[in-house]
Amino acid sequence: MFEANWVSPARVSAGLATTVQGSSSVTLDATADAAFAASITGLNPVTQRQFRKGFSTIYNIWAYASPTLTLDRAFVEVGSASSYSIFQSYYPAPMQDFHSWVSIRDMTNFLDLFTDRYTREKLNAMDPQRNWYYFPTDVAFYQLDLNPASSTYRFPLFELWGAPQSVLPYQLYGLRKGVDLVNPTDTLPPQIGEDVVMALARAYAYEWAEANKGDSPRNQGPDFRFLIGEAKSAYDRSFKDYRQTDRSMVDNWFSGRKSNLRGSFYAHYNSVTQTGGPGWGLWG
User: pTM score, two decimals?
Assistant: First the structure.
């Protein structure tokens, strides 16, 4: 399991941006360039922002060299010097081995976002121009980060719908797949013991040995098939025990922190917005 955060940046729209139809370059005037440069932080890098004019195509920003933006593809609308928006709709998973969400919570507005209500296909049917924005309500898988210059290259990207326009912190809870073991010095996650890894390693070693026996005669030497079976049995027993223990820990976490309460089950109060509620769960 993991715990992480997203922070949405404020929308940048000061000044003018000049686009040319068929070109992936966008030139910001002095006002726009200063506003965008001031908005760049480690939490919201250039390569995770989006650019659009009006309610036209949403483009990903792949690079920035003042005062020029480079988009992920050629600008197809009529080019001009006009108003624009730079914002962030797509957010990377905290790690490349991301598995699934438990919850995503808007900490300012005490809202739990839906993580499984809509797919991108459904969002495209409901809001094809993406003109619903301000306070996101849903999270949907978008695609992998395809920008080789991005620090999250090939990480899963998720769309916040509708797109946030101001600085909002989000608290993330989820599950990760785990990183593959590659080197002898790699460290096992605490949920898995060395015995289960070594049992599977022996099974693979015995398979190799059985496949590489000498052919003259084939039936001489140890019969590794029985050793393969015993190693796999030891692996299955150990893996079952470790998985049951890990599942118990996850179930305990869910019993104390349910993602479907939507912030209204218990009484709540927010000092920022000066709002609160008694919670409906106490009456049922």
Answer: 0.78
The SS3 of residue 100 is strand
Q: Structurally, how many domains does the chain consist of?
A: 2
Task: Indicate if 172 and 35 belong to the same structural domain.
Answer: yes
Per-residue pLDDT of 152-180, as tens digits, reads 999 999 999 989 999 999 999 999 888 88
In angstroms, the CA 137 to CA 257 distance is: 19
Same domain, 123 and 81: yes
H/E element holding 201? helix 194-211
Dump strand ranges (E) for the chain. 2-8, 17-19, 25-28, 50-52, 59-65, 68-71, 81-82, 85-87, 90-92, 98-106, 111-113, 133-134, 138-144, 156-161, 163-164, 168-176, 268-270, 275-277
Phi-psi bin for 240: left (phi > 0), alpha (psi -120 to 50), beta? Answer: alpha
